[in-house]
Design brief:
The chain has 389 residues and is of the alpha/beta class. The protein has 2 domains: 178 residues, Rossmann fold; 196 residues, Dehydroquinate synthase-like, alpha domain (Up-down Bundle). 49% of the residues lie in helices and 12% in strands. The chain contains 14 helices and 8 strands. The strands form 2 sheets. Strands 1-8-5-4-2-3 form a 6-stranded parallel β-sheet, sandwiched between helices. A two-stranded antiparallel sheet has the order 6-7. It is globular and about 60 Å long. The termini are far apart. The relative contact order is 0.12.
Length: 389
């Protein structure tokens, strides 16, 4: 057995712990640049409360921007220029608050501020640009997730998009793992049911794909089982009753575990195709993952039946089933969960046309697909996507 394990240095988890922000942030610096991933955070007073908490800890703060879309190259480059104009440097740190978009933008900007070999993040992204490496440590970063989904608060990458030319690639370095994670599940209570469903299925997809990845590792696998045991019953509860403390706590914890798992073990076909669906079809990441998950489990059944059975037996120990029955039942349970929270079954239901399939196949060959437990040739991926139309 031979593996490495990465996780945030400090995780602070619990209902109402947002109030500790100032005291926690004081270890990072004396001026905070705030990047938000949701306009509702400002409208509901959360951003103002955040600034007051920082002020009480003698931390100056600058609210930089809100991003409601998945971050694009222009978002990173423009935000980096804003921070440079504000003299960002020693003693400063970033706070990314919101869903994956806000946290990813904060992570990317914190890295670009200190790495100045190029003016554009494109040159540092995987598979595009000049292939530059992040050689300087990013500015310190605190991540405050307000949705339970991407696990970006615990990962070592930020996903950056472009539409001309079309790509969705990662800026990745071990130093990009946030220094402090403050996870208060209460912050997610205002998230609408549809977003709760889609982000929650992103977390569940990450837990399942990390467990069966060809790069799977023992510690992340243990975390995946714990996360799935929490998330599968909790997600419908959180969708149907947004103020459910039990549902929100379980989903926030599961999402955090999913981020730690994927940072160590990688992902698979669902996350391979999801960026392509985002770039070519403007489908949100969580929805794309949710829709692709049952097909991904079926595609990998031949090489991961044992692992599916392990997961099912951990989730439902009272069921005395054969390995084959348990594995098939896991796929059935995931489809039932999708149906209950109103995830569409077909790509055509979310506007995908047959003419887009070739571009989707071509754009699915990224880091996530390389973690799939078996190779999915272009011809087979084409057939899978066509079968979902």
């Amino acid at each position: 057995m031979n593996y490495n394990f990465f996780a945030p240095q400090q995780i602070n988890f619990g209902w109402g712990r947002f109030q500790e922000t100032g005291n926690l942030a004081a270890s990072l610096g004396t001026r905070a640049f705030i990047i938000s991933g949701s306009r509702s955070l400002a409208a509901s007073g959360v951003i103002e409360e955040l600034r007051q908490l920082l002020s009480r800890a003698s931390i100056k703060s600058e609210f930089i921007r809100t991003i409601s879309n998945e971050p694009e190259v222009t978002d990173v480059d423009q935000t980096t220029r804003v921070l440079r104009n504000l003299g960002a440097g020693a003693g400063d740190f970033l706070i990314g608050i919101g869903g994956g978009s806000g946290i990813d933008l904060a992570k990317a900007t914190s890295a670009m501020i200190t790495n100045q070999e190029s003016e554009t993040v494109v040159d540092y992204l995987e598979g595009v640009g000049r292939g530059l490496k992040l050689t300087e440590a990013p500015l310190p970063l605190m991540a405050i997730p307000t949705t339970a989904g991407t696990g970006s608060e615990a990962t070592k990458n930020a996903v950056i998009s472009s539409y001309a030319p079309p790509f969705k690639k990662s800026l990745r370095a071990e130093q990009m793992i946030p220094d402090i994670v403050l996870c208060d599940p209460q912050l997610a209570c205002s998230v609408p049911p549809e977003i709760t469903a889609r982000t929650g299925m992103d977390a569940i997809t990450q837990l399942l794909e990390s467990y069966i990845s060809c790069r799977a590792q023992p510690i992340p696998q243990a975390l995946c089982l714990q996360g799935l045991k929490l998330a599968i019953p909790a997600l419908p509860e959180a969708v149907e009753n947004g103020n459910s403390r039990r549902g929100r706590e379980a989903m926030a914890h599961a999402a955090l575990l999913s981020g730690i798992a994927l940072a160590n073990s990688g992902l698979g076909m669902a996350h391979g195709v999801a960026p392509a669906l985002g770039i070519h079809c403007k489908i949100s990441h969580g929805l794309a993952c949710a829709l692709m998950l049952p097909a991904t489990l079926k595609a990998n059944y031949s090489v991961r039946q044992q692992q599916y059975a392990e997961i099912y037996r951990f989730l439902y120990p009272e069921q005395a089933l054969s390995a084959e029955q348990a594995a098939e039942s896991l796929i059935d349970e995931i489809q039932k969960l999708n149906d209950r929270i109103q995830i569409p079954r077909r790509l055509s239901d979310v506007g995908v046309s047959p003419l887009q399939i070739p571009a989707l196949v071509q754009s699915s060959r990224g880091n996530s697909m390389s973690g799939n437990p078996r190779e999915i040739p272009d011809e087979e991926l084409t057939q899978i996507l066509e079968s979902l139309l």
